[in-house]
Write a structure and sequence with these properties.
Number of strands: 0
Helix content: 55-70%
Mean pLDDT: 85
Strand content: under 5%
Low-confidence stretches: 138-143
Number of helices: 8
Distance between the termini: 48 Å
Oligomer: single chain
Order of helices and strands: HHHHHHHH
Length: 147
């Protein structure tokens, strides 16, 4: 049996975690780190990381990078920005980190995705294209050699 103060604290923590997730969704292109997110939620960075992963299945940093990659996919499909421009537009400071994480989530480098996705989603409404091209979280993308 759970004590009332413990369950109330858990509900407060869940509300804080939702606010952190919402902040990431809104401010993904801004410089965000776990320390800043934790300060905003009045939690320690370690506690935020543990609780966020329990609630959402990935770390706050992983969630932030997934949001950035989702937005990058949209920008790359448009085709009017270079990979470097997209990298910085979504808030990544390192092209190498961006490319590595993009490849992990999407299964191909951003330059290849830019070329392939533009053709694959031509004529498709953007809301449908976003759904069918959504990245896979937690390093689940299969490399082309494993398909």
């Amino acid at each position: 049996m759970t004590s009332r103060p413990t369950s109330e604290r858990h509900l407060r923590d869940l509300a804080r975690l939702r606010r952190v997730r919402d902040r990431i969704d809104r401010e993904y292109a801004q410089p965000l780190d776990v320390e800043a997110l934790a300060r905003g939620a009045h939690m320690s960075a370690g506690h935020l990381s543990r609780e966020f992963k329990l609630a959402y299945g990935e770390s706050p940093y992983g969630y932030l990078m997934t949001r950035r990659i989702e937005r990058a996919m949209t920008l790359l499909r448009r085709g009017d920005l270079s990979v470097t421009e997209v990298c910085f537009a979504v808030g990544c400071a390192s092209l190498g980190t961006f490319s590595t994480r993009f490849t992990e989530l999407v299964g191909m480098p951003p330059s290849v995705y830019r070329h392939e996705a533009a053709r694959a989603t031509a004529g498709m409404p953007s809301c449908v294209a976003k759904q069918v091209t959504r990245p896979i979280r937690n390093r689940e993308a299969r490399s082309p050699s494993h398909t």
